[in-house]
Amino acid sequence: MRWSIRNRSFVHVFTAHPGETGAYSRAAELTEPTVIMTFRAQPEEFDALAGAGEPFFRAAWGKDVVGLKVRPDVDWDEVRELLTESYRVLAPAKLVKLLG
After folding, report:
1. In the chain, pLDDT over 90 holds for what percent of residues?
2. pTM for the whole thing?
3. Which of 43, 62, 69, 100 makes the best surface tag, with the fewest CB within 10 Å?
4. Count of alpha carbons within 13 angstroms of residue 38, beta-carbon side
5. Could you state, in order of their start, the residue ranges of all structural domains in the chain?
6. Residue 45's CB: how many other CB atoms inside 10 A?
7. Beta partners for 66?
8. Position 13 pLDDT exceeds 90
């Protein structure tokens, strides 16, 4: 499932399978089917998240795309913040202003 603005995805959620999902499974170093969420991040946030290690990883595409392995203990408040920021990366200023 993808959420987009101006025909560009700011969130993508899917189940990746080792060896079957190409770049996704390699970037996330999967050993079993895993729900993955990818999103965009500002440069300073990207560096922090991509370097944080599990459950985050640097996607093998896009200069600003971070991946998250969605696990039962995921912090949904943090996810909400990350996805809001991902929207801000791609949304026009007029729409970003509506977020406050």
Report:
1. 67
2. 0.88
3. 100
4. 24
5. 2-99
6. 17
7. 39, 58
8. yes
Q: Which residues contact 96 (CB under 8 A, 6 or more apart)?
A: 87, 88
CATH 2.30.330.10: does it fit domain 2-99? no
Following DSSP, what letter does each residue of 1-57 receive, concatenated?
-EEEETTEEEEEEEEE-TTTSTHHHHHHT-SS-EEEEEEE--HHHHHHHHTS-TTEE
Spatial contact of 10 and 41, defined as CB atoms under 8 Å apart: no
- Residues 59-75: tens digit of each pLDDT: 888 889 999 999 999 99
Residue 2's DSSP bridge partners are 12
In contact, 40 and 65? CB cutoff 8 Å: yes
